[in-house]
Structure formats: structure tokens, C-alpha cells
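Entry 12.
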Amino acid sequence: MILACITVMAFLVHVITSGESLSEYADKHPEAAYGTVTFSETEGTAPEATEAPAEENDEETEQDLNEETRLPDREPVFYAELLTPQLIETIKGISIPAEGVPELDFEDLRLLHITFVNFEGVEEVGEMICNKSIAEDLLLIFRELYVSGYQIESMQLVEAFEGSDDRSMAANNTSCFNYRNIGKSSRLSRHGYGMAVDINPVYNPEIKYGSDGEIAAVNPAGSENYVNRDGSPHRIDENDLAYRLFTERGFIWGGSWNSSTDYMHFEKPGY
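Predicted 3D structure (C-alpha cells):
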């Protein structure tokens, strides 16, 4: 663990002193900058976790350790894998119709495992399904968000919310794939292709405007207090790190739209 920490610190010092962003460094030195960012092209294969050595602390000392300062039991993980048959059966009829869809094969999707820092400053490992064409982008982006201590409240598959986008957003869940239309329209959302990500939705709501320019709806319900962006916590704007990282890698931000401003939303063109 000590050796791993020294390696990570040396890498960060190099990046900071050279003036390169992590994504720029990764383009030149993927084997170093990725750290634990790996891609598995076999079902259900994950990199082996590195267990921390056992500490010989007495019970009282162990209880005194704060969860936010305790060393994690394993290294942070950032990897992609093919959907297993078990996962495919799980998502059928929830985030994707049971009979499948013409736009996608299951081989077009990847399951990402991503370490993030939650609102309490504690590290968690989240899951996200995305299109394979943006898997590398997302792993690099969320790796840099993690390194920077960027806080994300929740990162679960929409199956945890029975496939309901409304429930996922209301839980402030950061997610990607969900085969659904845009609102009440007949147009497939970019989420339906696994090509869009919503981040901290409660604090970065979607605001719909009527023909008179007045606010007609705010999604998710309960996020009305964050329509005013001034001083809003966990706010995504053009000065935000998530905005910079996503747009640097070719994503479009919904916060720049007019008729419907979607602050939580980043989508990649194409596919």
C-alpha cells in the first residue's frame, strides 16, 4: 500500500509540475495515467483488487479512526467489462425491453466500475452501464474527478430504481444507460444509446420553458431550490471541473441549451 501511495504521489507531482491535465498525460502515457483503469473484453473479468495489509491496532484505536481518514481496504478501481449473461437478464424489462432493441446489441454496452467520493467524503465503488464507444472517456473523466475529490452522491444502475428515470434523478443518482424516450416525446434519448450521463441531478436540474419564456417544469421534483444557480452546492457550470473534463473529450453540455436547460446532462454526439 505504501509503495502504491508513493507511486500515485509521484505521478501526481509529475502531472502538476508539468502543467498537464490527467487526460493529456493519459493520452501520452496510458499505462501510467490509467492506474487501475483497465478494459476487460471477457465477460465478468475484473482486475484483482489489492488488499491492504492487516493493521495491528487494538479495538479502541480502531474505533477512533474516522471513516474519512482510514486508508481504504483496496485500491480505487476504474475498469470496464462486457455485460455478463446474469446482468443482461437483470436489466431486461427494466432499463432495456425484454425482447431487446434494434438500435443496440448487448455487446455494444459496457459495465463500468468507478470509485468516487460521496457527499460525506467517503470513497465508494459505483456502477454505470454505457455505450462501449464512450467507456474509455468516462473512465478517464471519473478517474480525474476522483483524484480531485469531486463529490458525487450516488452511482447506481437504474435497476435500483426499477428503471424509473424520475426516481433515479430524485435520489440524486448519477447514471448513464436507460433505454427511454426524451420526456413524453417519441424520440429516443441519448441515454437510450448509452451515450449520455446525468451527474448529481437534484443539484443540477432540467428546466423546461414555455413559449412565454417562463419556467414550465423542473426535473427532478424537489430540485426547485437549485434553479437559481448562484451559490448552489455541487453546481455544474462552465467553471466546474466536470464541465471541463466532459467538454474536453467532445461531450455536449445540456446546461447550454435554451428551450430546455439540462444542467446535469452531458452527451456524446455520434453513434
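Annotation: The beta strands are 37-39, 78-82, 109-117, 123-131, 196-198, 206-209, 215-219, 252-253, 260-262, 265-267. Confidence is low (pLDDT under 50) at residues 1-23, 28-36, 40-72.
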